[in-house]
Amino acid sequence: MSAKVLVDEKRGKLIKTDAIEMESKAKNVDRISNLPWDVLDTILVNLPLRDAARTSILSSKWRYKWTGLSKFVFDDKCFPSSLSGKVRWGEIMKIIHQVRSYHSGPIEKFKLAAYCCPNSSDLDQWILFLAQKGLKELILQDFSCVKRLKLPSFLFSCPQVSCLELYGCIFKLPSDFKGFYCLKSLQLTQVSIISDTLESLIRNCPILERLTLLSIEHLAFLRIHNPNLKYLKIDSEFEDICLENSMLLDSVDIRMIPMYGRTVPQQLEHGKPCNLVRVFRCLTGIKKLTLSSYFLEFLANGEVPERLRTVLNHLSFLDLKEIKFNNLKEVTVFVSVLRSCPNLEELYISVAETNFSRSVLGFLKAQCVCEFFSQLKVVRIRGITGTIIEMEFIKLLLARSPLLETLITVTYGPERIPESLLLQVQRASKHVKITSLTL
């Protein structure tokens, strides 16, 4: 074998060896650890906090990386279900102590939804730490303790807060409160707050877009005035409501729980407009509306017009919950609302009860306006039993809905309404599909 051939073979082996060594080194390069922190933060905050904390065992370089996250979410994924509320809070405090010791940079979000029993003093100090870190989202949910937490005053001076969800708190505004100028979303659940405080809070959130009030205590008169509000959900006790100066509202969901067990609204003073007119006269831009039985009865206080003067031209979705078809006041109100929605496309109704009422039956039979529901396409009625009043309402829908495509009825009993019976009813639409279901 010539010397040239031997040299070429050795050169080939060297080249192959170098390639293998380079490939091995490439495999051992820790590319993840060398990623920019903003990229790592994006990865880690999308993991459950428990999994993000487990990265501390990867290497000494990773030991405290998780403590520098921009978002901290404590939920049931972090702890075994067997742990009690107090023990869970103890575990949370261990994590908080590490974060306070090693964290640098901003913290944008803190969510506590671990069904724990927080110590008020510890939570105050943590919120103070968050306030100094540029907190934008604070979410407190589902405590296991009964005692109400008093919110610390420095929370109301967080300039960057854009989302607040508070549960089980005592809400009092400090005397020097100037407003949440960045707050876009506010949710209060089982919070103790008086009407005047709530009104002041809403007024002083100039860019507030979403407001949710659930099981609020001590509310008598709900005054909601905010020109930028777009979404409103209320499921709570209250006696009266005013929605003036909320012209941009496009989604409203109101479930009224009568205060003190009183289901009949107080008598209106002579000359005052019906509650239906007063509440809805400013909601000209609304697109989605959900109303419950007791609130319909509240709206019926006064002389209910056949239709609202302020036509709800933009309303395309209407959901009526817990309707009592034997209550003339409720039926009168929701028919008046239906008359005022020329562009309504979807109608959902859940029925609470339908005992026979001669006055309701007569009222429904008298509704004979041509093309009453000219744009209606989908109707779903849940909880019916097939009474004569329910059937009269269904007849009205079928006879006055020329574009209707789908009608679904759901009964809770063993027997569904025969589709053949509904097919015998006069229908304005030739293409409607009728379906009867049972639950």
From TrEMBL:
InterPro entries, sorted: F-box-like_dom_sf (IPR036047), F-box_dom (IPR001810), LRR_dom_sf (IPR032675), LRR_FXL15/At3g58940/PEG3-like (IPR055411)
Return the protein name.
F-box domain-containing protein
Describe the location of the F-box/LRR-repeat protein 15/At3g58940/PEG3-like LRR domain by residue ranges: 123-349
Q: Which Pfam families match?
A: F-box, LRR_At5g56370
Name the source's superkingdom: Eukaryota
F-box domain location is: 32-71
